[in-house]
Design goal:
It is built from 8 helices and 11 strands. The chain has a single domain, classed as Rossmann fold, CATH 3.40.50.720. The strands form 2 sheets. Strands 1, 2, 3, 4, 5, 8, 9, 10 and 11 form a 9-stranded mixed sheet that branches. The chain has about 200 residues and is α/β, with parallel strands linked by helices.
Length: about 200
């Protein structure tokens, strides 16, 4: 499984920690270039590699974890996506004030999908705060829940396998327009809920 992350902020770094902990090799990219990630990659250990965004976009599974307003620039010159799985870990808010972006009633993943023609988008890894996402999924006696949604059954199955491999309990919410809205922030009822599955 060839994996990469575009975005090395709080959420991207949290995902990177989970991948490294699970012993999965991955690339990580940001807008400043691979050299700026030397310290992070050193801390993450031997499974992490700093790459360009263009290189990251060639992975089989690509996490997109970028501040909302920076997404268009982050994906503008990369691709083509050609059926690659993109995990949309973003929320339509602007830091540091966490102001909601007006999407005109659309699901946030629908907006992201338009920027990634040919990609198989799965909404996931977006509803937990970074500290929880980076922590031990089994820290509370069960497995911390991660929601996921998408319109491509095969892509969702691959993401579900990855979620399980990382030690989380995945829950399929259905389509991007249905389940994706439930897990998006702001607007959905599920973000920031720290749920644990004990069975």
């Amino acid at each position: 499984m060839n994996i990469a992350i575009i975005g090395a902020g709080a959420i991207g770094s949290a995902i990177a920690q989970q991948l490294a902990r699970a012993g999965l090799d991955f690339g990580i990219a940001n807008s400043r270039g691979p050299d700026s990630l030397a310290g992070l990659v050193r801390d993450l250990g031997p499974h992490a590699a700093a790459v360009s965004a263009a290189e990251a976009a060639q992975a089989d599974i690509v996490f997109l974890a970028v501040n909302w307003s920076k997404i268009p620039a982050a994906v503008k010159d990369v691709g083509p996506w050609q059926g690659r799985i993109v995990i949309d870990a973003n929320n339509a808010i602007e830091a540091p004030l966490f102001q909601a972006v007006d999407l005109g009633g659309r699901a946030s993943s629908a907006v992201v999908a338009e920027l990634l023609p040919g990609a198989r988008l799965v909404k996931a890894f977006n509803h937990l705060q970074a500290a929880l996402l980076a922590g031990d999924p089994r820290a509370e006696g069960g497995r911390r829940v991660l929601f996921y949604s998408g319109d491509d059954a095969q892509a969702k199955a691959r993401v579900a396998q990855l979620i399980e491999r990382l030690g989380f309990a995945g829950i399929d919410l259905g389509t991007l327009d249905g389940g994706g809205r439930l897990a998006q922030f702001p607007g959905g009822p599920l973000p920031v809920l720290n749920l644990v599955k004990f069975a």
